[in-house]
Amino acid sequence: MMAAGNTAKAAIRIGYGWDSHEFKSGIPLKIGGVEIPHPQGLGGHSDGDVLLHALTDALLGALAAPDIGTLFSPSDSRWKGADSVLFLEEALRRVREAGYRIVNVDSTLILAHPKIVPHAPAIREHLSKLLGIGGEDIGIKAKTPEGMGTENAAIAHAVVLLGKASSARKGKFSTKAPAA
Ligand code: MG
Hints:
By secondary structure, the protein is of the alpha+beta class. It has one domain: CATH 3.30.1330.50. Helices cover about 30% and strands about 30% of the residues. It has helices at about 50-60, 70, 85-95, 120-130, 165-175; strands at about 10-25, 30, 35, 40, 100-110, 140-145, 155-165. The strands form 2 sheets. Strands 4-1-7-5-6 form a 5-stranded mixed sheet. Strands 2-3 form a two-stranded antiparallel sheet. The chain starts with 11 loop residues before the first strand and ends in a 7-residue tail after the last helix. Bound molecules: magnesium ion.
């Protein structure tokens, strides 16, 4: 088996993450780091931000690093009520350390309520700051759970593409013609 530390050789790497949390009354609803007005929030050991958790796992997965639950155990009291941005920042630190940057991310939320479309611009803007990429490189899609029976849960799927930090810079900013 190839060691997880061997990631530096690939020019691009893909990552995938998935998460779900149950709706609970009396707590704020946070999706993608943005607080959304709603009578219920998402329960969990941390702040229950299903989208940030899926994105964090996608970034960690792209590096073949340990997953979010392994790095930030739900049985560890340090992460009780934690802002999920902390988890994302650790994944981003590992991405930089491995010599990569994010090319783009895509995500799909599956939840019966509330409607996400009105909040998608704010979520995209916030994620753009957190991830350090443009809003045009952040996909946010939302669906209702038709026939799935998961009306009391929010589910998030996320994929990320990483590119080598150095080659990415060359590709984007070099005005020189490639060597023949
Ligand atoms: Mg979670």
